[in-house]
Design a protein that fits this description.
Structural class of chain A: alpha/beta
Largest sheet of chain B: 4 strands, mixed
Shape of chain B: elongated
CATH architecture of the largest domain in chain A: 3-Layer(aba) Sandwich
Strand content of chain B: 5-15%
Helix content of chain B: 40-55%
Oligomer: heterodimer
Strand content of chain A: 5-15%
Distance between the termini of chain B: 29 Å
Strand order of the largest sheet of chain B: 2-1-3-4
CATH topology of the largest domain in chain A: Rossmann fold
Number of strands of chain B: 4
Low-confidence stretches of chain B: none
CATH topology of the largest domain in chain B: Glutaredoxin
Distance between the termini of chain A: 56 Å
Low-confidence stretches of chain A: none
Largest sheet of chain A: 5 strands, mixed
Order of helices and strands of chain B: HHHHEHHEEEH
Number of helices of chain B: 7
CATH class of the largest domain in chain A: Alpha Beta
CATH class of the largest domain in chain B: Alpha Beta
Radius of gyration of chain B: 18 Å
Shape of chain A: globular
Number of helices of chain A: 19
CATH architecture of the largest domain in chain B: 3-Layer(aba) Sandwich
Radius of gyration of chain A: 25 Å
CATH superfamily of the largest domain in chain B: Glutaredoxin
C-alpha cells in the first residue's frame, strides 16, 4: 500500500494508506484518548472521546475510525476539542455509579484516568434520572455491574468476535440501553464459557471476577487448615504488572516469595501438573493412535474451551482428551498423593490456585473433579486477585528476593512453562510423544517446534514421527477454534492432534490477567510480549521435557504405577457433559 | 422491554411455517430482520421459544435476536389477548381524562401498555386518535367502541367479556 503524508499538531508523519488519524497521531507521538476503540474488534467510533479537528472537515471527526488522506492536516488538542471531550466525560458521569473509592478498577480505570487528564472532577454536572440496574452475580466467574457500564461495547465485541459466542449484547434502546443476555437471563443460565475476555476488554469497573480473596484469607487465618497454593505458568509473566513492572516481566521467583509471605503452608507450581498433564496426555495420544481410538485428539486444559465444546460441538466430545486440566490434576494430587504422604486428612486441606483465568473458578466446581471425595481445588484466584492480596498485605513485591517452589510439587521443566502460550501445550506434548514413539532423544535444535509458536489464530504443522505422519493444528480464541472444528467435521482436514485455548494467544492473555489499558493494547501485542517471557524461561531450564521431571518420575514410581494406570485415571482424568446453546424454557 | 409471562402455545404447524421461512433466507446476508418480521406474522409475537428456534436454526446468538427485538418498536414479546383493549390517548381523549381511564384499566388488569394478562384473556394497547373525538375519551374492547369513558365504568365493561 502506498504511503501518505499527514500533519498532526504541526508534526508531519508518513503512514500507510488506510491508516486512521489515531494511528498517524500515535506515530507522531501524540496520545489521542479513546474509550470504545479496541483495535480489530470494536472500531465503531461511538464514544466520541477521540474527536479531533481535520482542516476542511465539516465537523469534529472520530480519530479512531477516520481514514487519513495524503496531505491531511489535523489538530488533536485544541481548546475546542478539549471542551468537547470534557463535556462527553461529564455526560458519561451523569449516569455512572461513581463508587470510585470502593471500585475494583480504581486507579486502573480508563474513564477515571481520562477524567483526571481533562480535569473532570465534580460529580454533579447534570441533574436527572440515573439508571439503577441489578448486579448480575449469578456466574461462578464473572460479575456484571451495569451501573458502571459506559456502553462502549468492548465486552460484547470480545464475546462475539474473539469467541464467536455473543451471549452478551445491547438490549433495549435510548436511555434504557444496557448490556445483558437474551431475555435478561442471568449469565450463569446462558452458554457463557466464563473466559473473562469481557472483563479484560472492559475499560471501567462494570465487569470483574467473582472475588474469592476473602474466603482464601479466612482459610489462611484458620489454624486447623493446611492451605496449599499452586500458580499457573502465565501468572509469572503477568503478576508483575499489578505492581507497575513492565508488561510481561518474569517474576517466577518473586511470586513464590510473595505467596510464602501471605502464609500459604506450601507454595507449589502448576508447572508440575503441566508436566503431569503432558505425560498422561502424550500417553493417551499414543494409545489412541496405536489402538484405533477417536482422532483427532483435542487438548482439555482450557476450561473455557471445554464449556464451549460442551455447548456448541457436543458431538465432538469423544475427541477431547480425558485428562483433567493442570489446575485440577494438581488439586487431585494434593488431596490424594500429597495428603497421604503428609498424613493430612484431605478435608483439612484448602487447595488454592492462582490462574490467569476466570473460567478456572467454574472448573473447580464441576462434577467429576473430586479425586479424594472433596473438590480438587477449593478456590481459584485470578492473577489480579493475587495482586490484591499481596498489595493488601503490604508486601514490597518488586523488591522481593527470588525464592524456589516447595518440593515435590514445585519441580517442573521448560515444557510446562510454555503451557501459557498458544501452541505451548502442543509443543510440550510433541517433545514427549515424539521421543516416546521414536525411542530417540530430540536434539536441542529439534526440541523447539517453531511452527506451532506465535499468536496467529490457527496454526498447522505436519511431522514425520517414525512411520507415522502426525498432523497437528493449534487454535486460540474460540472463533478460531470453531474454524478448526468445522474443518474436522466436514472431513476437510484429518488432524491427529489439536490444541485449543479459549483466549486469543492462550493463557498469557487470559481473562484473569492484569488489565492493560486499550491505549497500550491498541499498539502493542501484549500476547507476544508475555509469551516471550515464557519461552525465555523454557530456554533457560536445564530440563525441557516433561517426562524428564524427576518429581514426575517419582510420583509414578511411588503412587500411580504407570502412565494411564487405573489409579492415574481415578485422580487425573475426568468426564464431560453435553450442553445446549439455548436452554429449553417452558 | 416487557416479556410476557403468558405460557407459550405455539403449534407444530406454526413451527413448520417458521422453519420454511428460515430455510428461505438461509445463507442470505441481513436475513435476521425479515425472519423476525415473518416469525411475528406467524406467532403474533416473538417469545423465547420462537427466538430460540431462529437462533438454533441460523446459528445467530439469541442475544443478538433479542437485542434487535428490544430495539425496534415493531417487535413484541407479548402475545395478543383474546380481547384487545385499546385506550385512546389522542389529544381530545387525553384532555378529557383518558389518562385516568388508562390507569384504571392497568389497575384492574394488572398489566401495562403492550402486555397481556397471564390468562391470555386481555391485552392492552395505547393508541393515538381513533377518529371519534366527539366521543372522547374513547376505549375500544374487542372492536366495541365505548365513548365518554369514565374510570368507574371500566370494571363493568371489562366484566362483559368472558
Amino acid at each position: 500500500m502506498a504511503d501518505i503524508k499527514v500533519t498532526v499538531d504541526n508534526i508531519t508523519v508518513t503512514v500507510p494508506e488506510g491508516s486512521t488519524l489515531l494511528d498517524a497521531a500515535h506515530k507522531a507521538g501524540i496520545d489521542i484518548p479513546t474509550l470504545c476503540y479496541l483495535r480489530d474488534i470494536n472500531e465503531i467510533g461511538a464514544c466520541r472521546i477521540c474527536v479531533c479537528e481535520v482542516v476542511g472537515a465539516r465537523a469534529l471527526v472520530a480519530a479512531c475510525v477516520y481514514p487519513c488522506t495524503d496531505g491531511m492536516v489535523a489538530y488533536t488538542n485544541t481548546e475546542k476539542i478539549k471542551d468537547y471531550r470534557r463535556k462527553t466525560l461529564q455526560l458519561i458521569l451523569s449516569d455512572h455509579d461513581q463508587d470510585c473509592l470502593g471500585c475494583v478498577r480504581s486507579t486502573d480505570c480508563e474513564l477515571q484516568a481520562l477524567c483526571k487528564r481533562y480535569g473532570v472532577e465534580k460529580t454533579d454536572y447534570y441533574e436527572g434520572v440515573k439508571n439503577d440496574f441489578a448486579i448480575d452475580a449469578s456466574s461462578a466467574s464473572i460479575v456484571r455491574d451495569n451501573n458502571k457500564c459506559i456502553l462502549c461495547r468492548r465486552c460484547t465485541a470480545a464475546c462475539e468476535k474473539y469467541q464467536s459466542i455473543g451471549v452478551i449484547g445491547a438490549n433495549d434502546r435510548g436511555f434504557a440501553t444496557h448490556i445483558g443476555s437474551a431475555f435478561e437471563l442471568p449469565l450463569a443460565e446462558t452458554s457463557c464459557v466464563n473466559c473473562g475476555q469481557c472483563i479484560v476488554a472492559c475499560p471501567v469497573g462494570a465487569l470483574h471476577e467473582q472475588d474469592a480473596t476473602a474466603a482464601v484469607k479466612a482459610a489462611l487465618a484458620d489454624p486447623s487448615k493446611t492451605v496449599v497454593v499452586q500458580a499457573a505458568p502465565s501468572v509469572r509473566v503477568g503478576l508483575g504488572e499489578c505492581f507497575g513492572m513492565p508488561i510481561g516481566a518474569e517474576v517466577e521467583g518473586k511470586m513464590a516469595a510473595g505467596m510464602r509471605r501471605l502464609g500459604f503452608d506450601a507454595v507449589f507450581d502448576t508447572n508440575f501438573s503441566a508436566d503431569l498433564t503432558i505425560v498422561e496426555e502424550a500417553n493417551e495420544l499414543i494409545e489412541r493412535v496405536t489402538k484405533g481410538g477417536v482422532l483427532p485428539m483435542i487438548t482439555s486444559c482450557s476450561p473455557g474451551w471445554i464449556k464451549f465444546i460442551e455447548h456448541y460441538y457436543p458431538e465432538l466430545l469423544p475427541n477431547v482428551s480425558s485428562c483433567k486440566s493442570p489446575q485440577q490434576m494438581f488439586g487431585g494430587v494434593v488431596k490424594t498423593f500429597w495428603a497421604e504422604k503428609k498424613g493430612i486428612d484431605p478435608k483439612d486441606i484448602v487447595s488454592v490456585s492462582i490462574m490467569p483465568c476466570t473460567a478456572k473458578k467454574f472448573e473447580c466446581g464441576r462434577e467429576d473433579q473430586s479425586a479424594a471425595g472433596v473438590p480438587d481445588v477449593d478456590y481459584a484466584l485470578t492473577t489480579r486477585e493475587l495482586g490484591r492480596l499481596i498489595n493488601e498485605a503490604g508486601i514490597d513485591f518488586v523488591n522481593l528476593p527470588d525464592e524456589p517452589y516447595d518440593d515435590p510439587l514445585g519441580e517442573s521443566t521448560g515444557a510446562a512453562v510454555i503451557f501459557g502460550a498458544t501452541g505451548g501445550v502442543m509443543e510440550a506434548a510433541l517433545r514427549t510423544a515424539v521421543e516416546w514413539i521414536t525411542g530417540k532423544q530430540l536434539g536441542k535444535d529439534l526440541l523447539e517446534f517453531q511452527d506451532v509458536r506465535g499468536v496467529e489464530g490457527v496454526k498447522e504443522a505436519s511431522y514425520k514421527v517414525g512411520d507415522l505422519e502426525v498432523s497437528v493444528a493449534v487454535a486460540s480464541g474460540l472463533a478460531n477454534a470453531r474454524k478448526v472444528l468445522e474443518m474436522v467435521k466436514s472431513g476437510e482436514k484429518n488432524y491427529t492432534f489439536i490444541e485449543i485455548m479459549a483466549c486469543p494467544g492462550g493463557c498469557v492473555n487470559g481473562g484473569g490477567q492484569p488489565h492493560v489499558p486499550a491505549k497500550i493494547k491498541n499498539f502493542i501485542d501484549v500476547r507476544e510480549v508475555r509469551a516471550k517471557g515464557l519461552y525465555d524461561l523454557d530456554a533457560a531450564r536445564p530440563l525441557r521435557r516433561s517426562h524428564e521431571n524427576p518429581s514426575i518420575k517419582a510420583i509414578y514410581d511411588e503412587y500411580f504405577g504407570s502412565y494411564g494406570s487405573h489409579k492415574a485415571h481415578e485422580v487425573l482424568h475426568t468426564t464431560y457433559v453435553a450442553r445446549k446453546v439455548n436452554a429449553d424454557h417452558e | 422491554m416487557k416479556v410476557s409471562s403468558v405460557p407459550f402455545k405455539g403449534t407444530k404447524d406454526q413451527e413448520a411455517k417458521l422453519l420454511e421461512v428460515i430455510a428461505k433466507y438461509k445463507g442470505m446476508k441481513g436475513a435476521l430482520m425479515p425472519i423476525m418480521q415473518e416469525a411475528q406474522e406467524i406467532y403474533g409475537y416473538l417469545p423465547y421459544q420462537v427466538q430460540k428456534i431462529i437462533s438454533d436454526e441460523t446459528g445467530i446468538p439469541i442475544e443478538k435476536i433479542y437485542g434487535v427485538a428490544t430495539f425496534y418498536a415493531q417487535f413484541s414479546m407479548s402475545p395478543k389477548g383474546k380481547y384487545i383493549v385499546a385506550v385512546c390517548l389522542g389529544t381530545a381523549c387525553y384532555v378529557k381524562g383518558a389518562g385516568k381511564v388508562l390507569e384504571e384499566v392497568e389497575k384492574i388488569l394488572g398489566i401495562g401498555d403492550g402486555d397481556c394478562t397471564p390468562d391470555g384473556k386481555f391485552s392492552l394497547e395505547v393508541c393515538r386518535c381513533v377518529g371519534a373525538c366527539g366521543l372522547a375519551p374513547v376505549m375500544i374492547v374487542a372492536g366495541d367502541v365505548y365513548g365518554k369513558m369514565t374510570p368507574d365504568r371500566v370494571e363493568g365493561i371489562l366484566a362483559k367479556y368472558e
